[in-house]
């Protein structure tokens, strides 16, 4: 198999290699090379895009790493993580398309450095790519984040998925932050919830937890006051 790819464009931004990328990404541009500009026809019909990028050369990097560099966690295979340490340095990112100006895509939620080669772009389909029941037994993503960063991450996730942040959504996020701080694995199949509140509150709970009524992981009661409980309480 060939180990070469043809870049279709590159990232143009103020975030250079070695700088810290915000938890929820940042606003930047993707410049598509003129030879591939025709491939952008109709792209404005999409609100979100999936971007494939190249961030290095194939190498004999280790296949087991400590999640997020936390040596207190067990060594884990890279194929079960989102680690940048991979045999083939291909990265995927989902971004919001703000505007297209000919061969330039203005996006938000970008997770790549300036000058990163872009390999491919495809439309993001919420009908095919959101799996609410997906679980991850250990919340590695929160291991190295402080309270403010955790809130920023959850808020960005909800806003990207629902399009806005209501007061009910904020309350749901705060409930989950309390659970995460108590080391509750919020998307575990073993974690069940009892939810009371508005439909918007329920929508946010389902989005973050992946729990649904038909899965048996969630009980819901319409109420004017929002509340979230674990059933049964964790030991």
From TrEMBL:
Q: Which UniProt keywords apply?
A: S-adenosyl-L-methionine
- Pfam families found in the cross-reference section: TrmO_N
Output the InterPro entries linked to this UniProt entry: TrmO-like_N, UPF0066_cons_site, YaeB-like, YaeB-like_sf, YaeB_N_sf
- Give start-end ranges for the coiled-coil region(s): none
User: Which superkingdom heads the taxonomic lineage of this protein's source?
Assistant: Bacteria
Identify the residues that the record assigns to the TsaA-like domain, covering every copy: 5-133
User: Which family is it part of?
Assistant: Belongs to the tRNA methyltransferase O family.
NCBIfam families for this protein = tRNA_TsaA
The name on file for this protein is Uncharacterized protein family UPF0066
Give the species this sequence originates from. Thermodesulfobium narugense DSM 14796
